[in-house]
Design brief:
Length: about 150
Amino acid sequence: MISSREEVTKMILSTKVRKGIKWTQAAEATGLSKEWTTAGCLGQMTFNKPQAEAIGKLFALSDEAIAWLQVVPYKGSLPTAVPTDPLVYRWYEIVSVYGTTIKELIHEEFGDGIMSAIDFSMDIQRTEDPKGDRVNVVLSGKFLPYKSY
């Protein structure tokens, strides 16, 4: 018996390592981006039934685990308030250093509101560079203005 979505994430990660599955393979199975599919496999998104079944087949999950993939998760995957993993910490550092700049520039261009993480897409690509390859990340979120009432 599975008691949480986190258990299914551990099953997926265990199978990924054991079988050498790549996130791009999971994305191909679902027909979704590698970024969204990876977030779903890590417990941050809800798969619909066909998507969950495709993930279940790829990772050899039980029917119960597939059902858990269709349950709306508790979002927010960081284990601590300040991340300790070096790569995740650098993203925290980027937001700490540039967050106010991003906020100011978005408000200047769009007005008072937020960038949606719901109506959102992300693309992560490698860009070759003779001085060292670059990580190219594009975040695209719908602007949602605050409304008066």
